Automatic annotation (TrEMBL):
Listed SUPFAM superfamilies: P-loop containing nucleoside triphosphate hydrolases (SSF52540)
Record organism: Streptomyces luteireticuli
Gene3D superfamilies, per the entry: P-loop containing nucleotide triphosphate hydrolases
Similarity-based family: Belongs to the GPN-loop GTPase family.
Name assigned to this protein: ATP/GTP-binding protein
Keyword annotations: GTP-binding, Hydrolase, Nucleotide-binding
InterPro entries per the UniProt record, alphabetical: Gliding_Motility_GTPase (IPR052705), Gpn (IPR004130), P-loop_NTPase (IPR027417)
Source organism, top-level taxon: Bacteria
Amino acid sequence: MDYKTSDPHTGPRREDILPATAAAAVKVVIVGGFGVGKTTLVGTVSEIRPLTTEETMTQAGVGVDDLAGIEQKIETTVAMDFGRISINEQLVLYLFGTPGQERFWFLWDGLFEGALGAVVLLDTRRLEVSYEVVGILEERGVPFVVAVNTFPGAPVHPVPELRAAMDLPESVPIFACDARDRASCRDALMTLMRYLYRLAHKTPEPQ
């Protein structure tokens, strides 16, 4: 018997083993306010079983966590989410989802360390949640793109309005993303990779 691939108690599962062809691994952070869909995105796109630290919300959060617009939410990330996706045979992205509640933002410093870039997940029902998130990324010099999570029934705003509301330069990509759809999540990560490539090579934004 091949214990390395057959016995779950002696090592990683076959699907969790990093591809032998992988030549580069990049850390990417999925960041956003409370309840914007970070855990959903990481779980949707990850090719391995994602690590989550979700806990049932308790009375401790009453009066502290703002549930306006997400009253049905019953669990929350208290440390981080972790997943992995292979962009191609050589490039692997390690995904770290941040906790959204402000009382856990002290953990962000460690999660940002070594990150090449970030995807800011936006909920148009609660735009104000994202303002401080963007400010933190800009303060730390972490390049980012903005993915508007398409919640059912959420207000739809033209990109120029969103850009103006968050005071973002034209170079920062803003686009729609469905955190429940794997192809959409992968496209969001590819948008970040293309943006980082342009920054690194100082190439103009495609028209």
